[in-house]
Amino acid sequence: MPKLFKNENVYDAANARLDIIFKHFKKVYVSFSGGKDSSILLNMALEKAREHNCLPLHVLFIDLEGQYSHTIEHIVEMMSLPEVRGYWICLPLNLRNAVSQAHPYWLCWDKDKQSTWIRPMPEHPTVISDLGYFPFYRKGMEFEEFIVDFAEWFSGGELAACLVAIRSDESLNRYRTIRNARKVRFQDYGWSTLLTGNIYNFYPIYDWRTKDIWIANGKFGFRYNKIYDLMYLAGVPLKAMRICQPYGDDQRKGLYLFKILEPEIWVRVVARVEGANFGNRYAQNVALGNRKVILPPGHTYRSYAKFLLSTMPSHIAGHYRKKIFKFLNWWRKHAKESGYRSIPDFTDAKLEAARKAPSWRRICKVLLRNDYHCYGLSFAPSRFQYEKQLQAALYNDDINMDPARKTR
Questions:
Q1: Other Cβ atoms within 10 Å of 102 Cβ, number
Q2: DSSP 2-42
Q3: pLDDT given for residue 97 in this prediction
């Protein structure tokens, strides 16, 4: 669907949305990351909470250990406001690590590895590090699980609202999150989605652009994370500025900034997270399948894919084999519709990029990029995928990737 523009500026529109939220919901919290978007949302939500006499405003911040010092300073600044009731989560959560094949996940705030923590446990009244604080928590639970369970705990069975600083301009996936006809809405407001039960996510700044964020900061004097000033001085484009934990599939491209902006933190990042320095060197390089795949002499893309699998730890290689089998079999079953009666070594690059054509080159890119969830093969992750993979070890190293062969 095309975007439809109205004769209203995004600042006034966001305030009108916040008025609606505080009018209908007594339980409201802001999902805060310390980034530019969530900072704008928190500043604006505080102003509206004052107007609607809905203070204190509840704020959730999930600390993923690998944070810039300036980010933590900003978190302390916002969590220390008298009008804020903060939940600064410092619990061991299972996080994606896209810079290592051997360790595709890592556990933040793991007390068994306290000596190698990137930074000490923060000392602030809002910090929650007690494993028994939440009745739903279990060590090593996924980030995505935690935010849903927290929402249910926070609501206590009542109607509740979670304010999320997603902007549809950032990516197609974020646009789809909001512009999706299958989503359940609150009173048909297109900038809301049902999270779970009677808890709704709201996206008051979904239509803002990056420049709107900085215009608002300059015009209204909002508090913001000063790490962005350093990023600007380092020549990082405004749209490329990110502060989320830098080891994910997309975020790893900004891993090199730790070394430039905060070298002391960078030393501890390398010691703490497997593959961090590798990601720093190659995350934007052809070595990880970005831009193009360079075939070694004497290889086809199919033989290169098999070679790459042979170099991986057995449980990781098995995980990829399972996905590749499904990918190949799906295209075989749909051969009449798609026109691909066999999987080509490579085909039109644009069709591959659009995921409209199968090829062994696509498979090679997934393996080189360490795309554990195989987004490049049109897969999406399951909640306990990694844990099941470790326990099951379904596939051995010597499985022949013949599309006609049955899986075990």
A1: 11
A2: -----SS-HHHHHHHHHHHHHHH-SEEEEEE-SSHHHHHHH
A3: 64
Amino acid 159: pLDDT: 97
The Cα-based distances of 273 to 14, 102, 189, 270, 279 in angstroms read: 38, 11, 41, 6, 10
The reported pTM is 0.72
Q: In the structure encoding, which two tokens stand for residue 144, read together?
A: 């995505």
Contact between 14 and 215 (Cβ < 8 Å):
no
Mark the ranges of the chain whose per-residue pLDDT is less than 70. Answer: 1-3, 97-104, 172, 244-256, 258-259, 266-267, 270-271, 273-292, 381-408
Query: Phi and psi dihedrals of 210, rounded to 5?
Result: -55, -45
pLDDT at 3: 67
Structure-block tokens of residue 281: 């060197």
Q: What digits encode the pLDDT tens for the residues 301-358?
A: 999 999 989 988 888 888 889 999 999 988 888 877 777 778 899 998 888 888 888 9
Q: Which pairs from 264-271 meet CB under 8 Å and 24+ separation?
A: 265/68, 265/69, 265/118, 265/119, 268/116, 268/117, 268/118, 268/119, 269/66, 269/118, 271/116
Q: Which residue has the tokens 């995350």?
A: 283
- Cα(310)–Cα(181) distance, integer angstroms: 43
Length of the chain: 408
Show the CA angle centred on residue 139, arms to residues 138 and 141, nearest 5°: 75
Q: Domains, the chain, ranges and CATH?
A: 10-210 (3.40.50), 225-287 (no CATH), 301-392 (no CATH)
CA distance 362 to 190: 35
Look at strands 160-163 and 199-202 and give their pairing. Answer: parallel
